[in-house]
Write a structure and sequence with these properties.
104 residues; mainly alpha; Rossmann fold
Length: 104
Amino acid sequence: MPWEKISKPPVYSVVSDTPPFMACGVPVAAYPVTGPVDVVQQGQTGFCDDDLQKAALACLELDGKKCRDYALRFSWKAAAEEFLRNMVPARSAPEGNTDRLVNA
């Protein structure tokens, strides 16, 4: 598989761009800050810890395929499908009361 060619590093450690690396099957070691804590499944797709070395070493035991499978759930297609599922029809303005809509 092509993604396996760039998943050579056993662990990726950074604060941003986490999903693309997980999509390549690379577990992520990160600090527990906004972003990584929202994306990384602790002990499944990576580790968030104040001790980055500890997190990176723990990631060496993780299955890269699980990282990839998890990350693929968040494709642009999946995001668009979720968006469409959450759409609701807009209500029509009451007759003769369009000023509020135009000036909003």
